[in-house]
Amino acid sequence: MFTGFTNKIKTAIARIKGRTDLVICAVCVAVVVAVLCVSVSLIVKYNSKISDLEKSVSNLEQERNNLEEINNIKNDTIQDQENSANEKDQQIEDLENSLEDQENQHEKDTAEKEELKQEIEDLKDFISDYITNGLYDGYAARSSGLATKGQEEWLTASQEIKELKEYVSQLFEDEQQVSDLIASIDEQAAALQDYYDRIPNYRPAAGKTTSPFGYRKHPVLGYTKFHYGVDLSKSGGLAIYAAGKGVVTMVQWNDSYGWFIEIDHGNGYKTRYAHLKSHKTCLVSVGDEVDKGQHIATMGTTGLSTGVHLHFEVHENNERINPADFIGTY
Prior knowledge:
The chain is of the alpha+beta class. The protein has helices at residues 2-17, 22-133, 149-171, 175-198, 324-327, and strands at 209-211, 214-217, 224-227, 230-232, 239-241, 246-254, 258-264, 269-276, 289-290, 295-298, 310-316, 319-321.
């Protein structure tokens, strides 16, 4: 480019060599120089613009790449959100299914609990029937080896109470609820146990029955007279035991009984133990509470008696009844 301009200058100089007008020559030179300066300036300016355009293009490319990257990130985020939404939908569905299962289980548990509560109420009614209807009236002696209907029912009731308490413990997770229910069962069981303990069916002496309840020839008076109790021999030992739980109401002398003890069992039953050895051998006093089977006295032969033995009576609502219904006939 510069070579062309140089040649032009040389040509111009050659042309003006022969001229004398130096002014014209100077003007031409000035014009050429101006043209060169303008050309150089334009070239520099255009090169700068080209560089700026190249930078702008590079920046635009970078910005386009950045936008594409941001768009990809957004697309990935949207995809992740969609996946998360699907997972949440699945979780919600699982939770709804779980909630439905829990509701079904709750209904089942509620039904079982209601059934259990009904069983408890039935047990309370069962125990109440025992107490109200006196199902233990026919107990046999504890030493006879026999089991009457009453004893069988007592064993059945005891087993049912045990099984019910185990069932309550397994069914309920709430310890307080279990404790309350078992306390209710124990309260009813204690009432049943107390009632049972007050039935005078514990044989008061180990010896055999030598004179039953009913008419007999009186061994001292010599004529036929109703015998309102049973006589138990000393063959099994002289110890006398309370036939049932109760309170001692009498420890005193009677011309017929001699020294005797009366126990009120609190359920309409009273028992009497006669012909005791002496008041000194009586191990209880009026007002004492005694347990079933407790040692209370020693056999003797006081009163109208022909030898050492125990005369035992059972009173029901102040009427003397056959003790054999409670202690057996052997």
